[in-house]
Amino acid sequence: MLEARGLTKRYEGAGAPALDRLDLTVPAGEVFCLLGPNGAGKTTTVNLFLGFLAPTEGQALVCGVDAAKDPLGARARLAYVPETVTLYGALTGLENLGYFVEVSGAATPRSEFLPLLLAAGLPEEAATRPVRAYSKGMRQKVGVAIALARRAQALVLDEPTSGLDPLAANEFAKLIERLRREGLAVLMVTHDLFLAKQCGGRIGVMAQGRLARVFGAEDVDHLGLERAYLDIVASGGTA
Ligand SMILES: Nc1ncnc2c1ncn2[C@@H]1O[C@H](COP(=O)(O)OP(=O)(O)OP(=O)(O)O)[C@@H](O)[C@H]1O
What we know:
- The chain is of the alpha/beta class.
- The chain has helices spanning 42-49, 71-76, 93-104, 113-119, 136-149, 166-181, 193-198, 222-234; strands at 2-9, 19-26, 30-35, 57-62, 65-66, 78-81, 154-158, 185-189, 202-207, 210-216.
- It folds into 2 domains: 1-77 and 154-239, Rossmann fold; 87-151, no CATH class.
- It has 8 helices and 10 strands.
- A 6-stranded mixed sheet has the order 6-7-8-3-9-10, sandwiched between helices. Strands 2-1-4-5 form a 4-stranded antiparallel sheet.
- It is globular, with a radius of gyration of 18 Å.
């Protein structure tokens, strides 16, 4: 579970807070998509959950662990897939997975590596090829496989489908849905309204550091979400 309680971040020298009293709970088995324009506070939120930033006020809890007080404990329970997954180009997908699992200290047996890559949607023939020739979507899948291998209970994704073609983004949405069904708590930052709708769960729109509105993915159609998003952004989060 991911939980923000009155989570606030004011960067030094800045006037308005980058994140203003965020209250949010993402339980196991839910996807929460965070939308918002540039500078809304999405990355700040992610960095607070990862314990990379200390909050000015409030708490970011990962499965009950306060990320500011125990960042290593929080990160042990949280898998993070960034916008661009950094892998070793000369190593194969399998070798990269093995390396990152070892570094993380996870006890995942080697026999599970290939099934994990396949579960993340990587074609089997690609698993033994150097990743320097992988597409961005294939790299993202290795990133998800690394996250799965760590058996984290929560998953945070930052713009995971940026630069993916619609087919790859659609495949990625299905993967996220599967992880949700397997019981992960998923927080996904995205600019992609279609992806947010497709991944189900709840969709939050941030503006100027505030979580302005939360929609159930079932309760709003694409056009309605787009209109609401534009209204919220135009009003600076007060619509
Ligand atoms: N290290 C920093 N020092 C000062 N201000 C910062 C710092 N990082 C971010 N900010 C400011 O905090 C606010 C929120 O930034 P943040 O990066 O969280 O937004 P975002 O929603 O992730 O934007 P984007 O969609 O562009 O990634 C912005 O006004 C930004 O300029």
